Structures are given as C-alpha cells and as structure tokens.
From TrEMBL:
It comes from the Bacteria. This is Uncharacterized protein (DUF1015 family). It comes from Sphaerisporangium rubeum.
Length: 420
C-alpha cells in the first residue's frame, strides 16, 4: 500500500490528460471488454478480429517475456500511427447506450489516495497475484491501458455539463459493438469546463465500483517509483472513469465460482451436514429458485442434478465468521462463501489457485464445471446498499464479490506516461 505521506492532491481529483486513441477504421474490431471479464474462449476470437486488437496489450499471453512484448507492441503501434496522442489535454465524456442501458461518465487522470484518506473508497479485497501481474504489465508498457470505474454521489454543475455535451455536441467516436451497445466519446478541452469539474469534485468521495486490482496496482507503482527516488510523476495519477451514481445508477451483478476437481456429488454430500440441500433435475429450475430463496443461498451445479443450498446451520455459521467483522459484513453471501462454505464445508479457500471466476453468466459457469468435472457455485448479486455500507464503515467485501456495470469498453482511450 502506498505511504499516506507521499504527495497527493487534496480531495477527489480528476484532471485532463492527452488521451491515446486508435487511428483505425474499425474501432469495434480493436476494442474489447475489460481484461478481467474476457472468457478464456473469447481471447482468440478477439485476437482474430483485428491484428491491433487491444487484447494483445491487456492480455499478452503466457511466458516471462509477455509483459516486455506488450510494451514493444504498444510502442510499435504508436510509432506506426495505429495509436495517436491527442494534441490537447482533455477530460473525456464516455457514453454507453443500448436496450435498458445508459451510462455516462468522465474519464481522466485520477489523483491517487490511500484508502485511509477516505477519498477513494475500495470495497473489495484484492489478491497479490493479480496485482503483481497488472504491475508488471503497467511497468513494461508505462501506461494505463483501461480505466477503473468509480461512482460518486453527483455534482450538479458537472451533471449539467455532461448532459449538454452528450445531447448537443458531435462525438469523436461513435461505434456499435457486437453485443448491440453503442459507445460514444467526446473530448472536453475547455479549461473553464475542467475548472467546473474540479470545483464540483473537490468535496466528494468516490467508491471503486470496478478495478480494485488496478487501483491497488496504481498505488503499488506510485510507492515503487517514490522508493526509487523518482519523485512526483505520471505514476501519481491513474486512468479512471467517474460516474454520477444519482444520474446513472450502476447495475450490480454476481460473480460465480467454479471449483475444478470437486465432483458435484461430493460437494452436495458434504453440504448436507450444514445446509438444507434441495435437488433440481434441471439447473434452470434451481437458478429460478435461487432468485426467490431467502439469503444466504447458493446453487451448486455441474454433472447431474443441480442443488439449491438454503438455511445454513446458524451455530456453524456463527463459529466460522470472524467476530471482528460487522454484522452486515458477516451476512453477505460472499463472506459466507469465503469463510464458511469453501473452507469449513469443502476444505478449501477462495484463492486464485483453487477457484476460478466467471462473471455474471451462471450457465457459462455450469458449462465450465462440467468440462472440468467440477462444481459451479452460483451466487446471487449483492445489494448496492450493503456494499456501500460496508465500504463506508471501512471494511472490504471478499475478493470478486461484486461486478458493477455497465463497464466501459476497453481501447477507446488509453493513457501513456510519456503523454501525461
């Protein structure tokens, strides 16, 4: 964690920067979802979609040379003009729209603040392996390749500015991607508009909705650079999108688990010692029942019938949950998963080596479990109010508990340290 005594701006700061953008004809073919929601099976299709797809930078493959290769690729694309640097520093207004979707946020350089400063609030734990991976990539590319996603409790002048720009100005980018969503981007280059945003944000806090590992990486990089005596520099900021949660309320979706090598029949048998286990021949029926079940509840599925787990033994739950945690934290389904179901019932921990992650798609998790003779653990989504309350109390939910959305498309605007 970064030293809180290191130089950092006062209050919430989102400042303009020289954005790095693609100069190719088919923007839909070179962009991608965020790195951590791209399914393994989808990586190759993104690579095949265009020789300059951003996935070559954000997921540069395997092997010890992969990070250096990503850095070489980025510099090559800049040299060839595949990527270009905008002349004027800007805050970028990003809009994502589609059926039932409207997201607008400002992308800029976020002033980094340590968690104890209570300006940028994390709500989720991170794992060292992922931070180390992102740090190596960030150091090799000397860039922020995709923005983290922050939400805050609105500022009127900024909200008016965003609406005026989106409704009356011509965007730099207007592209429709394969999932039926439209992505638009505007550059706000007027210093007076920058001042309006700065004044509005100075008294606010922001919650990290998505990008905890990248924010932890920003802090780790800043610490490393200051430890090397390199002083203030572009590493004192990180690329971020800030969304007014009043005007554009985020969606919160679940993140499921897959445990390879744990047969479903064994998982269900072990669960019967502490849970009510309800059998469903059709997984679809079990998933429908999960939506109506009192919490905490889970569906476990794979080969064979699915099972709905409900009504855990309260005595066993009480003994398993950390006494120092708040009652709200102890009641979260992800807390019960990480502190009770995985370690106490199944004898394992929710870590990167043992448990795989599947964002949102329960059926995809079940397919993965079947392919690997394992068990999919399907979770309900947490409530936004619970997440906000836990963060406000200074606690963090277990890793990979939340998936806020809609997430910004990766590759529409990048930040390089040399251009900052």
């Amino acid at each position: 964690m970064a030293n809180p005594e290191l130089p950092s701006p006062g209050g919430l700061e989102l400042r303009p920067f020289h954005g790095v953008r693609y100069a190719v004809g088919d923007l839909a073919a070179v962009t991608s979802p965020p790195y951590d929601v791209i399914a393994r099976d989808d990586v190759q299709s993104l690579l095949d979609s265009h020789p300059n797809n951003i996935v070559r930078l954000i997921l540069p493959g395997d092997g010890p040379a992969r990070y250096a290769a990503a850095g070489d690729t980025l510099r090559s694309w800049l040299g060839q003009g595949v990527l270009t640097v905008d002349d004027a520093p800007a805050l970028y207004l990003y809009e994502q729209s589609g059926p039932g979707v409207l997201l607008r946020g400002l992308i800029g350089e976020l002033g980094l603040r340590a968690p104890q400063e209570r300006v940028v609030l994390p709500h989720e734990d991170v794992t060292p392996g992922t931070v180390a991976d992102r740090l190596a990539l960030m150091q090799a590319t000397e860039s922020n390749l995709e923005p983290i996603f922050l939400v805050y409790d609105g500022a009127e002048a900024t909200a008016r500015l965003i609406a005026e720009v989106a409704e009356h100005r011509v965007p730099l980018i207007d592209v429709r991607t394969g999932e039926g969503l439209t992505h638009r981007l505007w550059a706000l280059t007027d210093p007076a508009e920058h001042d309006t945003v700065a004044a509005d944000l100075s008294g606010h806090q922001a919650l990290i909705a998505d990008g905890h590992h990248r924010y932890a990486t920003y802090l780790a990089l800043r610490q490393a650079m200051h430890d090397q005596g390199r002083g203030p520099g572009p590493w004192d900021h990180g690329l971020a999108m800030l969304v007014d949660s009043v005007a554009y309320p985020p969606h919160l979706k679940p993140i499921h688990r897959v445990i390879p090598g744990l047969p479903l029949s064994e998982a269900a048998a072990r669960a019967k010692g502490s849970w009510q286990v309800h059998d469903y021949p059709d997984a679809a029926d079990a998933l429908a029942a999960l939506e109506e079940a009192p919490q905490p509840a889970f569906v476990i599925a794979g080969d064979g019938p699915a099972h709905l787990l409900t009504d855990p033994d309260p005595v066993q739950i009480s003994h398993a949950m950390p006494a120092e945690r708040s009652e709200r934290w102890r009641s979260l389904v992800t807390s019960i998963l990480s502190e009770f179901l995985l370690p106490k019932v199944w004898g394992m921990h929710d870590d990167e080596e043992t448990v795989r992650i599947v964002h949102h798609d329960a059926r995809a998790a079940i397919r993965m479990a079947r392919a690997e003779s394992g068990t999919a653990v399907i979770l309900p989504a947490l409530d936004v109010e619970d997440v906000l309350a836990v963060a406000a109390a200074g606690e963090r939910v277990p890793r990979k508990s939340t998936s806020f959305g809609p997430k910004p498309r990766t590759g529409l605007v990048l930040r390089t340290f040399s251009a900052s």
